[in-house]
Write a structure and sequence with these properties.
The chain is of the alpha+beta class. It contains 4 helices and 12 strands.
Amino acid sequence: MTKLKNEWFDWAKALLIAFALAFIVRMFFFAPIVVDGPSMQPTLHNHDQMIVNKFIYNVSEPERFDIIVFHATPEQDFIKRIIGLPGEHVAVRDDVLYINDKQVKENFLQEIKDNKQANQTLTNDFRLEDLPGGYETIPEGYVLVLGDNRNNSADSRVLGLIPQDTIVGKTSFIYWPLDRFRILDV
């Protein structure tokens, strides 16, 4: 009887440790997220399931073109791409991104730009000063984000700059559906 009791205790202890480790990993390191909506097409599709690295920005700074998850409201997280970083001025003119008045190529949008109609605009012109807040440069602790589907995205053009402390993490790994399984590159 004692041997059976010890075996049950060992199993219970192992399960408790497994649940504790899973909780710690989920809470502090990685979490699943499901893409909701078309705002990141063609890069991400509605219902793509991804893994969010919640730890990465504890050891490094956000970088231009990182795809991030952030708390847009207390109830809802959004997935967007970082375009502007602290200290920078951002503008888009004639579908060309300018950072501090220097043209920046957005390789992830090139296929869309190549296939658009002559009179079609991918990104309406804007300057950082035109966005909510009216900043001349992005202040410390904030980033400017845009969806890849520029004409169908609630991003910094609507929300304003995103406080870095609302960023949940970086995502670059689609694990479901299997035909979309991939690690995204910039």
